[in-house]
Amino acid sequence: MTPTLVRQQLPHAGPSPRVDLCARARDWAEIQERMLVPLYEAVYERLEVGRGTRLLGLGCGSGLALLMAAARGATVTGVDSASPELTALARERLLPEGWRTRARADTRLVEGSPEDAAVAAGTPAYNVVTAFEPVGCTAGDSEALGALLGRAAPLAERGTPVVLVGWGPPERCATSGVLRIAAKLADPLPGAGSWRAARRDDLEEVAQRAGLRPDGSGRVACPFGYADVDSAVRGLVSTGLFDAAVEATDRAQVDKELAEALHPHLRQDGTVWMPNVFRYLIARTA
User: Tens digit of pLDDT for each residue in 139-178?
Assistant: First the structure.
């Protein structure tokens, strides 16, 4: 997302981050975010997202998933508190100056919590909720998402589908081997939020914690394809999964290790191709 792998933006408080947040947001939006388009399409098709859909997107990032839902006729609201840089890009996509079509006129983008996206009195509640940032990539992310969903559920109709996303089995995700670099380089900073392998029941555990009822799941092929190694490195770093590695070493070392790890996925024409499978869970509000 925003998702893409998972979007973990550095906080703005405290010491200055060792990354250019604006450049990274652009890399996310222009290189990495599109990788989960097949997943978004599969979910929207299964839930028949279109006219009459009132969608709440949690962790909406730079807004590609919202844009796709709006193009199908849905009324969309995006919530994100992690990155003003990504929210600014979402506004460029979804609320361009002079846009007057109905699909965009109903769009809302909220920098804050789910409560800030509450609908006005007398307005129909949301009937689809999405959380497209993959669960189970870093320590503690599932707990945080469970709490977020618990706060968002009261804003939706009873029985509303809530979509959670995670990585598929590591053996079916070529990128898993590359992401292990993040954990290896961040080893001097245990618990710093670097990548970990997803577990089988991550999504179900989050749904249970949020008081949601599982109601189906699916898997979608989402290959990661890049024009060259440089684009692949920039795209992967834009996820934030390598922030702890950058802090423990430096950006040059992370880029070097990533480029070496990507070599087995380099094709003769210079492009990088990594097949992956992502899993989604549909759960229902009580």
Answer: 667 788 888 999 999 999 999 999 999 999 889 999 999 9
Q: Is the pLDDT of residue 102 over 50?
A: no
Instruction: Please name the residues in contact with 20: beta carbons below 8 A apart, sequence gap of 6 or more.
Output: none
Q: What are phi and psi of 234, to 5 degrees?
A: -60, -40
In the chain, where does DSSP find H-type helix? 21-27, 37-47, 64-71, 84-94, 102-105, 141-152, 175-185, 202-209, 229-237, 243-248, 251-262
Contact 252, 198 (CB under 8 A): no
Look at the alpha carbons of 215, 120, 89, 245 in this order and tell me if their dihedral is positive or negative. negative
- Secondary-structure breakdown of the chain: helix, strand, coil percentages, each rounded to the nearest 5: 40, 20, 40
Counted residue by residue, the chain has a size of 286
Residue with tokens 């405290």: 14
